[in-house]
Amino acid sequence: MLFFITAITIAQVGINTTTPNGILEINSNNSGVVLPRLVLTATDRMAPATNPQGGTIPAGTVIYNTATTTNAANNVSPGIYVWNGTSWIAQFTKKQTAFYETSAINIRTRSNEGLKSITGLVNRSFTPNFSGNYKIELNVNYGGGYAVNPSASGFGYQNIAVQSGVFNFQVNNSGITNYYLPAQAYSTSYDTTSENGKFYFDIWEQYFSIINLSLSAGTPITFSLFFNQDPAPEFVNSGNSGTGMGSVAKNIPCTVEIKYIGQ
């Protein structure tokens, strides 16, 4: 009888509690449970975990992995893993998002200056936490300047002109890759003597592009955004200065968002 009671008593274990509600209950107000910390090399490799009784470790074995690897589909990242009998299953969702935007509004562009740096989006750096596929979403906007006065240019009573250019997004991921996004905007000027031909509509337009990249955990990339405005002879002093210049980030900032989407 004494042996039977003793066996029942030790069947449940309580740490900092005398009334465990399960086979094991740990009670603390200021400390947590520290899992075994292992350096995994891939999700399909049991090692360095071992079974002290011999053979494979049982399904349900829980560890905390401290390593980051780049083994394609079998990558591991720091976090809790459970062995399911054949592989390690991560017990966390791999999420990473980074957001960048222009630090200036209404960045004026000229036709004769070549690549115009877009303030706030030049030489920016991003370091991926995971190895796999990342989506880069580029959102930009562009507006034209003052069109020339139609009475002074022989266009009649109304001048509807288009101003255009190309956004150049450069990504340095073990070498520079250029991505191009054409943009254009319309402006209108009327021959109205009372207003000196200054009726003007800045119809800016927004554009976006999706770029998918395969990145390696811990290996940073850099990126920059530029704009190259095309010649705009129907706009006031667009090649030098003045009201005929184009505008990037006219009313809202241009943005770059980088998001991890999986292996």
Task: Explain how this protein is built.
The structure is a single chain. This protein has helices at about 1-10, 150-155, and strands at about 15, 25, 35-40, 60-65, 80-85, 90, 95-100, 105-110, 115, 125, 130-145, 160-170, 175-190, 205-215, 220-230, 245-250, 255-260. A hairpin with a 4-residue loop joins strand 5 (about 80-85) and strand 6. It is about 5% helix and about 40% strand. The chain contains two helices and 17 strands. The chain is elongated, with a radius of gyration of 31 Å. The chain has two domains: about 15-90, no CATH class; about 95-260, Jelly Rolls (Sandwich), CATH 2.60.120.
List the helices and strands and how they pair.
Elements: H1 2-9, E1 13-15, E2 24-26, E3 37-38, E4 62-65, E5 79-83, E6 88-90, E7 97-101, E8 107-109, E9 116-117, E10 124-126, E11 132-143, H2 150-153, E12 158-172, E13 176-190, E14 205-215, E15 221-229, E16 246-248, E17 255-262
Parallel strand pairs: 1-2, 3-4
Antiparallel strand pairs: 4-5, 5-6, 7-17, 8-16, 9-15, 10-15, 11-14, 11-16, 11-17, 12-13, 12-15
The average pLDDT score comes to 86
CATH topology category name of the largest domain: Jelly Rolls
Question: How many domains in all?
Answer: 2
**Strand residue percentage:** 35-45%
Classification by helices and strands: mainly beta
Q: Which outline best applies?
A: elongated
Specify the oligomeric state.
Answer: single chain
Q: State the low-pLDDT regions, or none.
A: none
Number of helices: 2
CA radius of gyration: 31 Å
Give the CA-CA distance, first to last residue.
Answer: 59 Å
Q: What is the annotated CATH architecture of the largest domain? A: Sandwich
Q: Give the C-level CATH assignment of the largest domain.
A: Mainly Beta
Tell me the number of strands: 17
Largest sheet: 6 strands, antiparallel
- Helix content range of the residues, please? under 10%
**H/E element string?**
HEEEEEEEEEEEHEEEEEE
